[in-house]
Amino acid sequence: xxxxxxxxxxxxxxxxxxxxxxxxxxxxxxxxxxxxxxxxxxxxxxxxxxxxxxxxxxxxxxxxxxxxxxxxxxxxxxxxxxxxxxxxxxxxxxxxxxxxxxxxxxxxxxxxxxxxxxxxxxxxxxxxxxxxxxxxxxxxxxxxxxxxxxxxxxxxxxxxxxxxxxxxxxxxxxxxxxxxxxxxxxxxxxxxxxxxxxxxxxxxxxxxxxxxxxxxxxxxxxxxxxxxxxxxxxxxxxxxxxxxxxxxxxxxxxxxxxxxxxxxxxxxxxxxxxxxxxxxxxxxxxxxxxxxxxxxxxxxxxxxxxxxxxxxxxxxxxxxxxxxxxxxxxxxxxxxxxxxxxxxxxxxxxxxxxxxxxxxxxxxxxxxxxxxxxxxxxxxxxxxxxxxxxxxxxxxxxxxxxxxxxxxxxxxxxxxxxxxxxxxxxxxx
Amino acid sequence: xxxxxxxxxxxxxxxxxxxxxxxxxxxxxxxxxxxxxxxxxxxxxxxxxxxxxxxxxxxxxxxxxxxxxxxxxxxxxxxxxxxxxxxxxxxxxxxxxxxxxxxxxxxxxxxxxxxxxxxxxxxxxxxxxxxxxxxxxxxxxxxxxxxxxxxxxxxxxxx
Lengths: 429, 159
Prior knowledge:
The complex is a heterodimer. Chain A is an alpha+beta fold. Chain A has helices at 40-47, 55-60, 67-82, 88-119, 124-130, 132-153, 173-177, 180-198, 240-243, 269-276, 282-290, 303-324, 373-391, 397-409, and strands at residues 4-11, 19-25, 28-35, 162-163, 166-167, 212-215, 226-229, 234-235, 244-248, 255-259, 340-348, 351-359, 365-371, 421-428. In chain A, a hairpin with a 4-residue loop joins strand 7 (226-229) and strand 8 (234-235).
């Protein structure tokens, strides 16, 4: 075996938009280059001069899969700037909305994209021909997540009901209660998803990661918390820019995010799980244990099980919110403009999503910064591929291609907001 | 299916902030006030599994999206997905992700495709982040609107 190249193209409509290239010289990897296209750069410019109240709606359009994450980070950052705190049923409704997005996004990734990799199917279409009921379970689970998003967000794909301070309209108790039967079904389906994914066989792989996620005093992190890591990071969100930096990388038009002190880090379900296991609902903890997962999981391939555990948690949390919900007197908290800077970070399905806004006295946005989870994981994806390919250099070409793609999918790189779809090609010289 | 529950669907697919990618949305916004009562018009981002849900129960669906096949910008493609293969490479996703082409295949595999599935693909030029459509793409809108109106009007005709 001499020189060869593994190419993973993020096949996009814009040529040269993105891709991943692994070069092998002799028996060693000599280079790994990840290129990712990032719409947030465009949106940061687009937001300048707009009113603070427009930030949630505009940023929601960055991503068709996780609009809620963008809305939530935007709301929290603007509210932080304006000194507004959202509590009680409004805060609960936000958590419920976010649960809907986690269920939708995780079900999509597990069933439609990642599971076929593990089961040797070329795609979910082939999987549907062999196991239609499994695929239908995934679709229904995803749909229930979408239904929550529609009920609270007003629309599924670009929710319009979210505003700074809360919602334009809050649902009635009865409207939420009508979700209970579906959510109970979803909880069972999620538990089945944990068992199903745990039965897959996993390539053995470990690396010394720095996992980064939010951590809240009592909740599994969604909307709030401090930024923590397994290597000592423990900061309020407002200090993000002091600890994280985005670097221009010559081979990519996107920015790579790193921790100033230690470099690459890892965000997403695996990071949240490892840093917050005891905050998971008891039913989710039990499901994880029964599936053979310990409270710390360092094999990124097993992130598919962790995603399923998070669906269990999200279903239970949604049911808990609905159970205690009493419609608020007013669907939002008033927020008036003032010159200030605000910081917000929430847990998108794929990991932390950071927003920062500087506002003038009239409430116009002077500048905005948006750091999506996928750009934060880029360096870890590169490092994983480097180590994995080095260790499996003798693996037959086709298998190695398959496993590289499966490995990239461990991070659920956002198909809409940070990368486009990936196609993998391996050339031998 | 009885007459009461029979409904048809038009789906405009695209992203308003990806220039020519928005053409599917622009077209359905023009169509919406002009369609017969049994036709529902929706806007989608093109995420495949949503499409499988959205067209469930419809007797027919017309999908309108920007494509990249290499034809001159503004070219209008019309395909019958029941009888023709939808080229996966026209869309921004490959066979490894979840595109419109794959949504149709998934619908077929699960026996969840409407009886009639027609795709209008408008050849795009510029898919970068931004708002305005390219001129040739903009110019194609009227033609697609009339073609689709002709098509759905013909279907409801009792003569």
